[in-house]
Amino acid sequence: MQNDARLLFQTFTEIGIINQLARAELKQALPEGMSNAQFETLTHLNRVDGPHGPSQMATAFQVTKGAMTHTLGLLQKNGWVRVETHPTDGRGKTVEITKSGQAKYQEAQQTLYALMGELLAFTSDMDLETLNLNLEKIRVFMDAARD
Questions:
Q1: Which residues of 60-89 are buried (b: 16+ CB within 10 A; e: fewer)?
Q2: Burial letters for 121-138: b for 16+ Cβ neighbours within 10 Å, e otherwise?
Q3: Residue 52: helix, strand or coil by DSSP?
Q4: Which of 29, 30, 48, 28 is nearest to 38 (CA)?
Q5: Which residue blocks in 30-116 are alpha helix, DSSP H?
C-alpha cells in the first residue's frame, strides 16, 4: 500500500497537538526557575555522551547560536551546566551538565512521571514501544535529510 500524504499530514498534526499539550503540562510541572528550553537542554545533555559545543547544540535544537548561548547562560547561572573553553580550540566552548544539573533534571523528571500516571494507565507498554519505534524512524529520516 502506498503512503497517503493526507495520512502523513494527519500524523504530523497529531504530533503537533500532543507537543503543545505536553509543553503546557511541562511548563506547570518544572521546578521553580526552570523553563521548557532549559529542561530540553538538560534532557539533551543527559542523553548524549560527553561535552558538546554550543554550536552543535544550536544545530541539534534548530535555534540560533544566540538563543542557545542565552539558554546555556541561564543554566550556568543556576549551576546546572558548566561551560568551559574547548581544550584544543581556544575559540570554542564545551558544555557539560553538572551534578546539580543532573539532580535538578531528575527532580523535574520525577514530577513529570507522576503527572504521566493517568496516561500510562490509558495505554499499554506495547503500544508505546510500537509508537516510539515508528516515531524514531521518522526522526532519523528527517534528521538525515536536514544534513
A1: eeeeeeeebbebbebbeebebbbbeeeeee
A2: eeeeeeeeeeeeeeeeee
A3: strand
A4: 30
A5: 36-47, 54-61, 65-77, 99-115
Query: For 113-142, how does the pLDDT look when each residue is reduced to its tens digit (9 = 90+)?
Result: 888 888 888 889 999 999 999 999 999 999
CB distance 86 to 93 below 8 Å: yes
Taking CA 24 as the corner, what is the angle to CA 39 and CA 57, rounded to the nearest 5 degrees? 30
Contact 96, 51 (CB under 8 A): yes
The mean pLDDT value of the chain amounts to 89
Domains and CATH numbers, the chain: 31-115 (1.10.10.10)
Grid cell 535538578 is found at 104
**pTM of full prediction above 0.85:** no
Angle formed at CA 61 by CA 8 and CA 133, multiple of 5 degrees: 45
d(CA 130, CA 17): 20
Angle at the Cα of 61 from the Cα atoms of 45 and 51, rounded to 5 degrees: 30
